[in-house]
Specification:
Length: about 140
């Protein structure tokens, strides 16, 4: 097997905790930490087939590293010697919130444009339904 690595973007534990507290104070049926999750959810709603292929490719290319997986009991009998801090050692590069939003927006618009030009009738109906669902959830 191959060793795993975090798939960008990697959000800080503090950002995840702030989202959990926000939802505890104002419950919602579904939330995302960061713009990438929301953008990917919208993409999945509009173009599920494209989304599945994209995620399969991203997992193979970015989540699994070139290093072989380590063998052994892992943390079954004792705690990790390193990487046991809150971040798990996966801090990643710091990217501003604005840059993440712009990246997610650009990816969503690009994928949407590709999909709409490929199958205009089906995509328009699917997009309309997805937007209506998102509006109902937000209300």
């Amino acid at each position: 097997g191959r060793d795993v690595q975090p798939t960008p973007p990697v959000y800080s534990a503090e950002e995840v905790a702030a989202t959990i507290v926000r939802v505890a104070r104002r419950p919602r049926p579904q939330v995302y930490v960061g713009a990438a999750g929301a953008g990917l959810a919208a993409l999945r709603a509009v173009a599920p087939g494209f989304f599945r292929r994209l995620m399969a490719r991203q997992t193979a290319r970015r989540h699994l590293s070139d290093r072989p997986a380590t063998t052994g009991p892992g943390t079954l009998f004792q705690p990790m010697a390193e990487g046991a801090e809150v971040s798990g050692g996966w801090n990643g590069k710091s990217v501003s919130r604005r840059a993440r939003w712009l990246l997610a927006l650009g990816a969503g618009l690009g994928a949407g444009a590709w999909y709409f030009t490929r199958r205009p009738e089906t995509a328009t109906r699917r997009a309309t339904k997805a937007i209506r669902r998102l509006v109902r959830r937000a209300a």
